Amino acid sequence: MNVELRPVKTKAEQALSAAYTAARATLPGKGAVAELREDAFRNFETRGLPHRRVEQWKYTDLRVLLRDSYPLATPPDAAAKARAKNASQVLTGVDCRRLVFVDGAFAPELSDLAPEAGLAIGSMADALANTGSMGDALVAAHVGKTYPTEDVGVALNTALMGDGAVIRIAAGVTPRRPIHLIFAAGSDTPGSAFVRSLIVIENGAKATIIESHDGGDSQINSALELVVGDDTQVDYVKITQGRALHVGSLLATVGARAKFNSFAFTGDAALVRNQNFIRFAGEGTKAAIRGVSLLRGREHVDNTLLIEHAAPHCESREQFRAVLDGESHAVFQGKIVVEPHAQKTDAKMLTRALLLSDTAEADNKPELEIFADDVVCGHGATAGALDPGLKFYLMSRGISEKESEALLIEAFIDETIEEIAHEGIRDALKFAALKWLGTRS
Amino acid sequence: MSLLEIKNLHVEVEGKKILNGLSLTVNKGQVAAIMGPNGSGKSTLAYVLAGKPGYQVTEGDVLLDGVSILELSPDVRAAKGVFLAFQYPVEVPGVATMTFLRTALNAQRKTRGEGELSTPEFMKLVRDTSAKLGVGQEMLRRAVNVGFSGGEKKRNEILQMAILKPRLAVLDETDSGLDIDALQIVAEGVNRLRSPERSMIVITHYQRLLNFIVPDVVHVLAKGRVVKTGGKELALELEAKGYAEFVGEAA
Question: According to the model, what pLDDT value does residue B247 have?
Fold first, then answer.
């Protein structure tokens, strides 16, 4: 029998174990919630932090990258909240319902909680502890069940989940404004936060959900469970910035005849792993999973997808682009699984990396696993520098080298951002990309 | 009065010698045709004038208004009035034609120390110019050359030329890939731009284009240099006899 040898626990692994053991009694939720945490913690204890020999984490070796695990963030004080108040400048001009979380804890006084028919909003910590206005029925029905996975990033989140949002959008309801979950840093001592949110969008509802992170110097493990009903239309946008080490997991299940679009914008972020677990569970759904990452310096951004076509007649488009400068490293791993009965699946995945320096690195790993015989699936991946022929064409018309490059990079980015349905968000992200380009040396 | 002087130009591309002591003068307002067999260096000359990277000038000089332009980057040359209409205009995905035109025009004006054109002024200029070339609004909204037919791409080159108003326009095989109708539209566009202030170098393999754009002078290029110069009737002569004489002579 082969016994896998587990090396000695790293400092970060020891710190995470200690943090859980110390906080176990005070983390929100007893009974079933506590059991869920315990199972997840055992999973982490057995496997340790994911590393390069774990296929899904091959290019983002958390055991190496996470040298030390910071102590769990303390609840924000007034000063921390004041610092967090101006968070998320990217979408300042977009009229959203803002829900603000400071160092991982819900800050109702910074949030817009005006009542709206068919829309229920609460705190995850309250819901887990069964003291919130929502009760724990929604949490009991969904948390840990939306997309069951053994992934250790998710397991750590489940073991240590503190606060987050719990939102329910009732059947047939369209909230008046996009809902914006803002995760901001407030404390000046770096800590670690494990945020967990649950959003249930019932049949026939239409919603735009934005999740933005600017985690200061902290370590953020964020997970969002997204339960998307039949005949819904959902646009989900995630924006990640800042110096934090960010591990984000989207766990989504999508019903029948839905229109589901997700977009991940990552810019000026030190270390990001965005993993998307999405299951198409009902027939006739059309989905687009897209993203743009802008990297420089020694930044590292990993977008990893596991897309499961579990029902027939669904269409999905996966499109990710990265622009890399300096010594940055972009990773795209996209796996599309088509289950045996998911006939007539139509899936196309395309990833492109634009390398602006000789020292940047892009790893693209598209994968198809098809068990049905009547499907149309395809993938493509490219990585390359700016086309010198294009650059010369622009320059020959009088446009300077720098401006020609900026124009071509902007075009490369915009082609993907252009697909965002919400005009305000689209323009805000285009502007953020322009700002990034403008500060390029 | 000469606008462009090319003196004993030697050019290598990837170590291969293409231009071999080419000398040529283009006067102000003159339309000079450059004809020659394949591989004679016609397109290389066009690219060297525009400043394409990778073209190594080993000897000689190119003077615009008596001043060498060889050390200048392509954008600075453009601002000084050099324009190349590409034989194969490239597709620029994601950059709308309108944005491209405005960026280019304003960049040139800025380099020359002129103010940017206001939006209404620019729109009027594009509207008037594009209408004459049969370039529709729909084409202007599309990304530069993306999905354009061969004829549309060439018309777009002439549109850019009409808007940027260069002093020296180099037309590299503008007739290639065009049917007779498209050729006529393009040639009319070029002819409208003829002016005592604007010189043109019309590079072509075939005499046909020169029926529509009648040159003041014809130069024959072979093996990287000018081997014969004459009037417009020289083009007809070449059409009848072919290039065999020159290829043999230069060899």
Answer: 76
Q: What pLDDT sits at residue B251? A: 40
Same domain, A396 and A254: no
CB-based contacts of A139, cutoff 8 Å, min separation 6: A33, A124, A127, A128, A166, A198
Q: In this predicted structure, what is the pLDDT of residue A86?
A: 73
Query: A387: how many CB neighbours lie within 10 A of its CB?
Result: 15
pLDDT of residue B133: 87
Asked if B48 contacts B18 with a C-beta cutoff of 8 angstroms, the reply is no
Gap between the Cα atoms of A25 and A430, Å rounded: 45
Domain count of chain B? 1
Which residue's entry shows tokens 């070796």?
A: A61
Say if residue A7's pLDDT is above 70. Answer: no
Angstrom distance (rounded) from CA A425 to CA A58: 33
Sign of the Cα pseudo-torsion (A57, A61, A63, A68, in order): negative
What is the span of the domain harbouring residue A87? 11-282
Residues A114 and A257 occupy one common structural domain: yes
In a domain, A246, yes or no: yes
Chain centroid to Cα B181, Å, comes to: 21
**Structural Rg of chain A based on CA atoms:** 21
Q: Is residue A257 domain-shared with residue A401, that is, in the same domain?
A: no
The Cα–Cα gap between A127 and B226 comes to 85
A189 torsion bin: left (phi>0), alpha (psi -120 to 50), beta (else): beta
Residues of A in contact with B86 (CB under 8 A): 393
User: What CA–CA distance (Å, rounded) separates B76 from B93?
Assistant: 24
pTM over 0.95: no
- Between B52, B95, B143, which is nearest A392 by CB? B52
A396 to chain B, closest Cα gap in Å? 5
Cβ of A394 within 8 Å of Cβ of B104? The answer is yes
Note whether A64 and A51 are within 8 A (CB): yes
Closest residue by Cα to residue A264 from A286, A306, A235, A229: A235
Residue A293 is assigned to a structural domain of this protein? no
Which CATH number goes with the domain that contains B117? Answer: 3.40.50.300
What is the complex's ipTM, to 2 decimals? 0.96
Interface of B with A (CB under 8 A): 50-53, 73-75, 77-79, 83-84, 86, 89-90, 92-95, 100, 103-105, 107-108, 111, 143, 160, 164
